[in-house]
Amino acid sequence: MQKEKWRLVRDEIANDISNGSLQPGDRLPVEPDLVAKYGAGRHSVRRAVADLARAGLLSVEQGRGTFVETGPLLEYAIGKRTRLRRNLQGQGVDLKRELLDAQIVAARQRVAEALNLVEGAMVNESRRMTLGNGLPINMGTSYHDIERFPDFTARMDVLGSVTEAYKTYGITDYLRGETTLHSRMARAEEAKMLKQHPQSPVMVVRAVDTLLDGTPISFKQVIWSAVRVKFAIALED
Q1: Which fold has domain 5-68?
Q2: Spatial separation of the C-alpha atoms in residues 198 and 191, rounded to whole Å
Q3: Which of 173, 123, 112, 115 is nearest to 147 (CA)?
Q4: For residue range 169-187, what is the model confidence (pLDDT) as tens digits?
Q5: Residue 4 to residues 46, 48, 160, Cα–Cα distance (Å)
Q6: Are the C-beta atoms of 111 and 123 separated by less than 8 Å?
Q7: CATH class of 74-233
Q8: How far is Cα 70 from Cα 151, in angstroms, rounded to an integer?
Q9: H or E element that contains 13
Q10: What is the pTM of this model?
Q11: Residues 110, 85: contact at Cβ < 8 Å?
Q12: Residue from 11, 46, 49, 34 nearest 3 by CA
């Protein structure tokens, strides 16, 4: 059976990526040029590009164009001491974190239970975007007890590290007390923020960090781009 035209276009673009004709970060030609290059109709080209974007080989950015993804999947290890910077900068990743917003809010039931607080207690809520090598890899929300960690967001922004911010409160070590994760399709706003295809998946990670005696100090929910990051469970540090 003859392969459908869009699949042929997809395979040719994928081959151009694998053999180096298209380099990570390169912008794909505009649609009319792709039509002419591959001798296919617009519908076939669009379907081929969409399929490659879902697979994580291409990134479609609204208003800018379609780009070749910048590299292989990053590996994020979840273990007893899970540290973002140590995880990713150890792989040579250029890591940046951007504060999206921060406020003091009343803890909802899930947050209160995770932090051993009464529902409605005031907590620091901060949302951040993490970029690896210039591409969004996650967006997450963290919660800290306002009484125990006043000004946590400001200290984090100045120091650029959760670990260093904790040290200003006298906490020199902490553990990952609990991690749950599941996959689902990205919601429209998540796909837009993460600059990935709307039909690509994300990994939802919820985590509680604790002191060495088990006292919870943070609760976070992080939406990871599943086309850019893979997870490894570390049995030891």
Answers
A1: Arc Repressor Mutant, subunit A (1.10.10)
A2: 5
A3: 123
A4: 999 999 999 999 999 999 9
A5: 13, 10, 50
A6: yes
A7: alpha beta
A8: 36
A9: helix 5-18
A10: 0.78
A11: no
A12: 11
